[in-house]
Structure formats: C-alpha cells, structure tokens
Design goal:
The chain is α/β, with parallel strands linked by helices. The strands form four sheets. The protein has a nine-stranded mixed beta sheet with strand order 2-12-11-10-9-7-8-6-5, with helices on both faces.
C-alpha cells in the first residue's frame, strides 16, 4: 500500500488520519527522478575489508554536470537480503547530487568470500559476532569512496534498513565524521548489535528513524536516547506487522524516498569553506595543511566541514591550530 508518512505526535494524528489506521489502497511506487529523462549510471564494484573479505555492491557516481564535489552516502540492507533492495533509492540520491554506494554486507549477496570464513553459514546461524563486525564493511566502503573522483568525504551519511541500520549506527558511533543516519525500521538489539549503546555514542547528530505503527516501539526508545533524532511513523497492516519492514516500505509509503533524501540533503549542508581533518582514533583535529596530517594513516583520515562541526562532535583543536580564526 501507499501510506502517508507522519511525525510522531502526542495525539498520534497525521493529516487528519490516525496513524495506526491503515485505510489507503495499494498504489504504484512513488514517481522517480528518471521521469525527467536523465539516465542513471550504475557500476558494479568490489573492494576488500582489512580482514580480507571481498565486499560487492553498486555505485552511482555523481552527475557529470554537478558543480563542486558530491556528498557521499553508503546504503546497507536487511538481514538475509542484499543491496538490490536499496536500488529504488539510487535515482533519487543521484538527482539530489549524491555519490551513492549500496553494498552487500559480509555473508550476503555476492560478499561471501573467502570460503574458509563460512560467511553465508554464519549469516544463516545468526552469528552475533559476525554482525558486530559488519561495521568493517562500512569502513571499507568509505575508503573505497574516498578514492573516487568528484566526492566530498567531509559530507558523509548512511542509510540502513533493519539490521543494516544497526550496522550503520555501530559504525557512526566509531566515526564522528558521519553527518547523519537514516534508519528504516530500527531495533534495539538486532542480531546481537547493541544499538542502545550506539545511540548514546551517536550524540546530537541528525538521525531519522522511519517505522510502521506496529513496529514503533524501538524507534521511540532509541529516539529518547539520541538527542538529534526524529521519529516518523506511518500506518501498518493489521494482518502483517512486518509488511512494511525495512526496505519493504520503499515504493509503498507515499513520498518515503523524498523524505529520506530531503533529510540527507539538509544534514550534509553546503560544501565546506574551512574544512578540518582528524584521525578516527584521535580526539584532535588539524588544519588540512598541518604537518601533523601527514602522520595520519590514510585509513584513519576523516574530514569535517568546519572546526565548529568537529568540536560539536567532541574533538578539540591541535596546539598548532588557530581556532580563534574559525567562523
């Protein structure tokens, strides 16, 4: 069905309709930017994590006519699915100016090697250790994106569905350069990932959580812990509470793709005029031309749009920095 999205309200009313009541009829998917005549360019890609796991996915590069560098977004699928479930979002993201990478997380889709690691079996066994290590797949995806032409890694967001959102939050708790996360159908402990802990670590950064009414509980619990969060709900199906779970909401909830992309656009903001850099392992940021930056390993290097942004996420200027000159 095609549902209207609504913000959580005390009265639980959205556009005159009680959010818990499902009354809309089945309808076609939301209109696509492809209707404008633009051709979506996609590329199959693969890269390797630091443990040697080969990750596969689909990359949509920024539009050739786009001015400046493009913000980046990594998309993460649900349990026992693959990145193809997220392909409906890619035209909207490219139209909005993003460079987008949707990946198969380890043990899913084509990301099943090396054989000795038994990744598909461990997925089938719901091995919590495997899922708690999936943040490394996001790290590898980021590093691959950072090497692509025309991208701005100082504007970096994540989209995850169900446990993919848990992985996104787990990664974002480790990497303060993540500007925002969109989570389709949140859960507090999907497959052993402690998202309550990760929500606390996430801090005040923007977080959009989308869920059907029957699955609202976790979103509201997590929303109370993440100060920058927004919870949006829509009606579910009385006979199947998971009918709109995770990526199943795409093309079924009216305007959902535009809601997601609009939130991401607002969250990444404009290109930086005074960027700073930091190591993912440090609480100190530096000017990009600082000699200290040369000592940061490439895999650890992260970018922020401004000193103010870095400091709002708990970093402090290096002794050689000149914070007083920052806007």
């Amino acid at each position: 069905m095609r549902w209207a999205v609504c913000r959580v309200l005390v009265a639980a009313v959205c556009a005159g309709m009680l959010c818990g009541v499902a009354s809309a009829a089945r309808a076609p998917a939301t209109s696509s930017p492809a209707e404008t005549g633009s051709q979506l360019e996609t590329r199959p890609v693969s890269f390797t994590t630091d443990e040697g796991i080969e990750i596969h996915g689909t990359y949509v590069p920024p539009r050739a006519q786009a001015e400046g560098k493009a913000p980046i977004v990594i998309l993460l699928h649900m349990y026992n699915r693959d990145h193809n479930d997220l392909l409906p979002l890619l035209p909207f993201l490219q139209e909005a100016g993003f460079a987008a990478l949707a990946i198969d997380m380890r043990g899913h889709g084509r990301s099943v090697g090396p054989a000795a690691m038994n990744l598909p079996k461990r997925v089938g066994d719901r091995d919590p250790k495997l899922f708690r290590e999936m943040y490394r797949d996001v790290e590898a995806a980021y590093l691959w994106l950072a090497d692509q032409p025309g991208v701005d890694t100082g504007r970096f967001v994540l989209v995850g569905a169900s446990v993919g959102g848990s992985v996104a939050m787990n990664y974002a708790g480790r990497d303060r350069s993540v500007d925002a996360v969109v989570w389709l159908t949140p859960g507090t402990k999907y497959l052993g990932i402690d998202s309550m802990r990760d929500a606390r670590k996430y801090g005040h950064r923007p977080l959009l959580m989308l869920a059907a009414e029957p699955e609202r509980s976790a979103a509201e619990t997590l929303g109370a812990m993440a100060a920058g969060s927004t919870v949006q709900l829509f009606p579910g199906q009385a006979d199947n509470e998971m009918a709109l779970h995770g990526t199943r909401m795409l093309g079924q909830v009216a305007g959902i793709e535009k809601t997601i992309v609009g939130f991401l656009i607002r969250s990444v903001g404009q290109p930086a005029t005074q960027p700073v850099v930091a190591s993912i392992t440090s609480d100190v940021y530096h000017n990009p031309d600082s000699a200290s930056v040369k000592r940061i390993k490439k895999a650890n290097l992260r970018r922020f749009s401004s000193p103010s942004e870095a400091e709002s996420r708990g970093l402090r200027p290096s002794k050689s920095g000149r914070r007083s000159s920052a806007p």
